[in-house]
Write a structure and sequence with these properties.
alpha/beta; 7-stranded mixed sheet; 7 helices; 7 strands; Plipid/glycerol_acylTrfase; acyltransferase
Length: 194
């Protein structure tokens, strides 16, 4: 909850919310992320605005699996560290990042994942299913519409887009659920929010 955040985290949350509401004209539904306990927040990925929307719309810190190249920028690295995000290699299966993600869930925190592994990719990865099996955490589907990635991240942040973030009902899977079942149900839930 916000009351448990550091002063830096609260200030960043306020700035982010103001930027999205007043500059981007963003709207979001009430988050369905549980008020406590582990949760896996799974969203489609259409632009660099997506994680910002997920952070601003929640009262809990959301840790993300983030492409390692974002950590090369010192400013971005400091911001990502405020959400306890996890750098991940996109060129191969990053077991270390998955183990860190499992640790986030073991601590009862919220983990944000974009299952495509990148912006506007059509193929999904099965990390969500593995994390469900390892943690039994509920999966919260979310969908971002009305946003598009420009030629650069900076252009995307500067272009006013009026994005809309919608949340679905949390999905509960048995720990032994088949990966195809978990991914199929999750991606279907996200698609119904479009």
């Amino acid at each position: 909850m916000i009351g448990e955040w550091s002063l830096t985290q609260r200030n960043l949350h306020r700035l982010l919310t103001a930027y999205l509401r007043f500059y981007q004209g963003a709207h979001w539904e009430h988050s369905t992320v549980p008020a406590e306990g582990a949760a896996i927040l799974v969203c489609n990925h259409v632009s660099v605005l997506d994680p910002l929307l997920l952070v601003a719309s929640n009262q809990r810190v959301v840790s993300f699996l983030v492409a390692r190249e974002y950590y090369d920028n010192p400013l971005m690295r400091q911001l990502l560290e405020q959400t306890y995000s996890i750098p991940v290699r996109r060129d191969r299966r990053d077991v270390r990042a998955l183990l860190q993600a499992r640790h986030v869930l073991e601590e009862g925190r919220v983990l944000g994942i974009f299952p495509e592994g990148g912006i506007n990719r059509s193929e999904t990865r099965k990390g969500v299913a593995w994390l469900v099996r390892e943690s039994a955490a509920p999966v919260v589907p979310a969908h971002v519409g009305g946003a598009r990635q420009a030629a650069s991240d900076l252009q995307t942040w500067l272009r006013r887009q009026h994005p809309l973030l919608r949340y679905g009902v949390p999905l509960h899977f048995h720990r032994d659920a088949d990966a195809a079942e978990v991914m199929g149900a999750t991606m279907s839930a996200i698609a119904t929010l479009a």
